[in-house]
Design brief:
alpha+beta, Lipocalin, signal
């Protein structure tokens, strides 16, 4: 009986651990700041290559164009991800993406970029 309980407890612990290891959420799509001047375009994430495309433009100044690629890290499983961007000039940027609010937050400037399903009244906190 003790052995059965031990095995059952071990099984439950493994199942809890397995379900707690959720995936990084993928923020593919178009995001804009609250004024619609800065536009962030995130390409689909290639799980095999572990990367995706990144582009940021500005509607007021066409000379501002940032392009590069991104990788994902789990922040909170199935809810939020760290989006680590490497631009073509080698500069790096980090964003926090929250799927529940459909918001990207630039971690250096704390500017929020809202997706099509976002409520602009809410923003993620780092």
């Amino acid at each position: 009986m003790k052995k059965f309980i031990s095995v059952a407890l071990a099984f439950v612990m493994v199942m809890c651990l397995f379900t707690a290891c959720g995936a990084a959420v993928q923020p593919a799509g178009t995001y804009a700041d609250q004024f619609g001047t800065s536009i962030v375009e995130i390409g689909a994430y290639d799980a095999k290559e572990e990367t995706g495309s990144f582009k940021m433009t500005n509607t007021l100044n066409e000379d501002i164009l940032l392009e590069g690629s991104y990788t994902l890290e789990v922040c909170e499983a199935d809810i939020s991800s760290w989006v680590d961007v490497t631009l073509t000039d080698g500069t790096t940027m980090t964003f926090l993406y929250d799927v529940t609010m459909d918001v990207l937050q630039d971690q250096s400037s704390l500017i929020n970029y809202f997706g099509p399903n976002a409520s602009q009244e809410e923003a993620p906190t780092a």
